[in-house]
């Protein structure tokens, strides 16, 4: 690119879709320019309301997110949608395919959609999701919907970094409720029984209520359990109303600040973990790594000793004396 | 403990269950003594056949693993079982509860069972599973069954580090096959349709066959699709036979060495990532971290700049001049 970083940043602040798409690609692939750009954009961000939407495959998340976005668009605010897909460990790619796409949901130009894979190229926990949020936020997206496909730990991590989390459940998937109990169930601020025109919707609702009666939140929010039929749009306005209620609750409640502090602490630590590793890998020559692998394979050295040595080399810098 | 590290290691080599249990606890909680112990034990390990058994909740993994262990025990070899549970992000504990238990499967003293949580205390990807394998291996367990509860990325990672991976499927959970396609499906060396006395077993078998017909392996192994009824023991001897067939296939095939090399490379990198982070955290004072969090929260500094500064401080050592 012939533009300077500040020029690039300016284009993003002006919501230029191509500049945004390039920024996201740069961040996703871990380019140094992407990180420098983020440093500029971060200071212009922080105004978006980030809504996490999670639930098992087939729960109707995409349809619900689309309907919710359309409803919010009626008020004219630019909206960002990030769809996070589980990654195949073999292909390394996202299931939904096209990861570079950034397009309008409809002819409407105020909606930016981005698919992302759960894992970065170095196996981190979707570290780039928060960075993409920062880009969309700086670009003026007042609402950012982060849709996570799946029920795993990664999705929980992503959801925990949203300002509010909605969990979608559907009737007739009793086993999933079981699975969710491993932790996903407890993280939601709003529960949505989607496809609620199907038999069993009441049972799911009651199960969630029973779970909520037993669990204890750190704040005074009382998570609502809503019913929707995303395909027809039924209940979407209730969901929007609940999201707005939670937003003003958050602005009043001091404990929400504590949640944000925790989110940034964990984000900062995750970033430290990832960048440390990337920096160390950058310093490590391929041949040196392969020699270590061969040593371990032949049981000449154990992996812990090898790792300790690599860390100590890293701290000393590339063959530079000094440090500790 | 009043014993020295070499004494502790000797007890483990002699298969003392209490010494083994203490070692596993030390490794799991990241105690330095545990790591020093591993360094000694690693050089005595490498003989076990590590079998990963994965599948969705309710697929009957525990029962199958128990029956398989009983069958292998008939030949007199000591056996280790590691049951990896998804962790609740809230409690931090394993669902199955008792993580410290190490007991005989039956009055038989040759079977060692251990439950572990997927995530370590620092959020790593079950880094300790491989370390527990090393302990059981050094203790002479000729067969180690690693049972992962769940279908997420973590379970895939764990399965990839086994010598052989068996994937359990059950009839009547069509949606799960869909979920598995995100990558878990492809990693197995042996497919097991458990509860095959239920309706739909043929359909699952055919789906797997169809998937296999489309996928391409790096080696010449032709993954079998077996049917079992774990509760009655039906098909367990076929499974054992397939496991043994895969083992001798692996000993003949040069590409299996390439797989082991890849496993150790990825294990070494994971260890480097984790230990780097732990070392950096150990150096970082709580107050300094909190000051960073406050800076980011107040948008005085962006998280990437903060992380870069922390890394540079880490490389210089705790206030020690020099390095780079």
Largest sheet, strands/sense/barrel of chain A: 7 strands, parallel
Beta content of chain A: 5-15%
| Order of adjacent strands in the largest pleated sheet of chain A | 3-2-4-1-5-6-7
**Inertia-based shape of chain A:** globular
Helix content of chain A: 40-55%
The first-level CATH class name of the domain at 43-255 in chain A? Alpha Beta
Enumerate how many helices of chain A there are, as a single number: 13
Structural class of chain A: alpha/beta
Largest interface: A-B, 80 and 80 residues
Average pLDDT for all residues of chain A:
81
Instruction: Supply the CATH superfamily name of the domain at 43-255 in chain A.
Output: P-loop containing nucleotide triphosphate hydrolases
Q: Return Rg of chain A in Å.
A: 22 Å
Oligomer: homodimer
CATH topology of the domain at 43-255 in chain A: the name is: Rossmann fold
Low-pLDDT runs of 5+ residues of chain A are 88-107, 120-125, 319-324
CATH architecture of the domain at 43-255 in chain A: 3-Layer(aba) Sandwich
Distance between the termini of chain A: 40 Å
Number of strands of chain A: 7
User: Strand-and-helix sequence of chain A, N→C?
Assistant: HHHEHEEHEHEHHEHEHHHH
What keywords describe this structure?
homodimer; 324 residues; alpha/beta; Rossmann fold; 50% helix; 13% strand; disordered C terminus
Commentary on this structure:
The structure is a homodimer of 324-residue chains. In chain A, helix 9 links the parallel strand 6 and strand 7. Chain A is α/β, with parallel strands linked by helices and 324 residues long. The C terminus of chain A is likely disordered. Chain A has 13 helices and 7 strands. In chain A, 50% of the residues lie in helices and 13% in strands. In chain A, helix 2 crosses helix 3 and helix 2 packs antiparallel against helix 5. The first copy, chain A, is globular and about 60 Å long. Chain A has a domain of 213 residues: Rossmann fold (3-Layer(aba) Sandwich). The longest helix of chain A has 30 residues. A 7-stranded parallel sheet of chain A has the order 3-2-4-1-5-6-7, sandwiched between helices. Chains A and B meet through helix 3, helix 6, helix 7, helix 11 and helix 12 of A and helix 3, helix 6, helix 7, helix 11 and helix 12 of B.
